[in-house]
Specification:
By secondary structure, the chain is an alpha+beta fold. It has helices at residues 2-12, 16-24, 42-50, 82-88, 99-106, 151-158, and strands spanning 29-32, 58-65, 68-75, 79-80, 94-96, 123-127, 136-142, 145-149, 161-163, 166-167. 41% of the residues are buried.
Length: 168
Amino acid sequence: MAKKAKKQQLQSGSTPATVALTAAGVDFTVHSYDHDPSHPSYGEEAAEAMGVSPDRVFKTLVADVDGALVVGVVPVAGSLDLKALATAVGGKRAAMADPALAERTTGYVRGGISPLGQRKKLRTVLDASASSHRTICVSAGRRGLEVEVSPTDLAALTEATLAPIGRI
């Protein structure tokens, strides 16, 4: 009975990210888990809940690079190198974007921002370490929901630049 309820939840719980993946005809797997609001890290929580190594689970962060919003996608095991992100897009300075602005621009809530299906398509940089994995997991657009996809497909769909933007 619980399996049936979870399957129905996934069918009725599509997000702009899963819609974009489906429309593109890309192979992906949806992973859902019960989100714990008290967990200190959304990404680490996802890795733990799915039993996936934190270097294969990537977080989506929105930064302001010289006045323009840019998405950085890096492993949850590390952090975003803002200087490297700025360099990757030909900018000089980068800072984390205001969370409310990131939410309004992407259409997703913090902790559930996906690099896919954003309200306004932002320039995206995917950490180069992603290419060392057959698949990686990124937010599906809601806390407690991840999609597993090939880094090649993710980069193609988001028109991402691959660059070393993550720090361990």
